[in-house]
Amino acid sequence: MESRVGPGAREAVFAQLADAGRAEQVAQRLTDGIILGVLGAGERLPSEPDLARRFGVALITVREGLGILREAGLVETRRGRDGGSFVVADDADHRSLITTRLRGLAMVELSDMSVYFGAILAGVAERASERASAGDAERLTAWLDAADFGSAASARTNQGGFFLELAVLSQSARLVREQIRLQAEFGPLLLLGLDDEQARTDAAAHDHAIMRAVAGNRPARAREAAGDLVRGLSELLLAAKARIERGGGLDEPISA
Fold this sequence. Notes:
Blueprint: H1 7-13, H2 23-36, H3 48-55, H4 59-71, E1 75-78, E2 84-87, H5 91-103, H6 107-131, H7 134-146, H8 152-169, H9 173-190, H10 197-215, H11 219-245
Antiparallel strand pairs: 1-2
């Protein structure tokens, strides 16, 4: 089964930026979308004016951001009637970028980001269990049942999508905005552990536990399951950081 991206995941990639003056933020947001698999290989990005409108930045800022992505080999720009900026498939480059980001963050920073991500997701899950209608829960449960966690790429795409779709069920505009921001900023790092087959199995099981709690209107259980999920992913991320600090790489088993 191919990975599927829900509307929440794409909303996260193209949400307005907090600092409208930095081309680097445009580049980072799109990079995260590519690494997460929300923006697939060969996909044509929205036009430059459309990107400027969605991000809430000037057109020149978008052009500079796309230039950064071209230099990194993540997108290519084609001329002509069917032209535009297209995502380039190169997993080796993606992993190189992630390794660089990990090297630039201290262990305590990664731990703090994980704790905060877990706190927000726990609030999202709790509120969703209180507010989601039976129909809402049924639709997202069906989406999750069909989600593919068989490969690292599809698992990252579907896990990120689940986080954001769950936020929508919370019916809290503030929580949705914060989940979107965190997903764009920290999602590619937190989901590194999904390279591991057992981690993918565990993540899918936690997702289903969250959804059962939401469908059963059990806020405390929803919070607990969300916390368990993020703690497991965080442990794998910190293990990857430790291996990189020892001179290893992301091609080694993260759970080792």
